[in-house]
Amino acid sequence: MAKIFGKPYVTQEAMRTRIRELGQQISHDYQGKDLVVIGVLKGACIFFADLVRVIQLPIQMDFLIASGTKKAGRPPKMVKVWTELTEKIAKQHVLLVEDIVDSGLTAKFLVSQLHKHKPVSIEICTLLDKPAYREVAMKVKYVGFEVPPLYIVGYGLDFEQKYRNLPYLAKMDSK
Length: 175
Ligand code: IMP
What we know:
There is one protein chain. Helices cover about 20% and strands about 25% of the residues. Helix 1 (about 10-30) packs across helix 2. Helix 2 links the parallel strand 1 and strand 2. It is an alpha/beta fold. It is globular and about 45 Å long. The two termini are about 15 Å apart. It has one domain (about 10-150): Rossmann fold. It contains three helices and eight strands; from the N terminus they run H-E-H-E-E-E-H-E-E-E-E. The strands form two sheets. The protein has a six-stranded mixed β-sheet, with helices on both faces. Strands 7-8 form a two-stranded antiparallel ribbon. The longest helix is centred in the N-terminal third of the chain and has 18 residues, at about 10-30. The protein binds inosinic acid.
């Protein structure tokens, strides 16, 4: 792996710093509120684990497994949700944690599904925001890093289900 993805695109140190800042902001914004933090698997698994540990509130956690049909190229896309929530989110504030918001279709679909459970609010926190390919208007309140239209792997993000375990973010190398 190190040979293919020699140089980190975002280092572990930069990520630690930014995630700590996000945790502080979220802790401040949801002070005194009931918050359920929902991780979107598989991509957000590592970011989620880091983020919840720097949120200084008694949150609840839940997960959804979602996937799209898209690969590194850009064919049309449908979102499939493989699991259901195990916690009740009615009358709770919800923070949906994503790995990357690209076209915005996944986030938009998940938010529309979650609204059916009648939460008080739903916001999105994403490690990466790639606005260049946005297809639907999406309000993303918490963004780790805005990235240009590159294909990124590592830190939970995959290419054909591999490289999620790379401990930093790397640009997909075509060599
Ligand atoms: P969206 O629905 O187009 O916003 O895509 C969101 C999903 O596409 C993410 O949760 C990722 O699984 C995948 N994705 C989009 N861009 C990248 C990337 O650069 N690297 C890895 N996965 C990506």
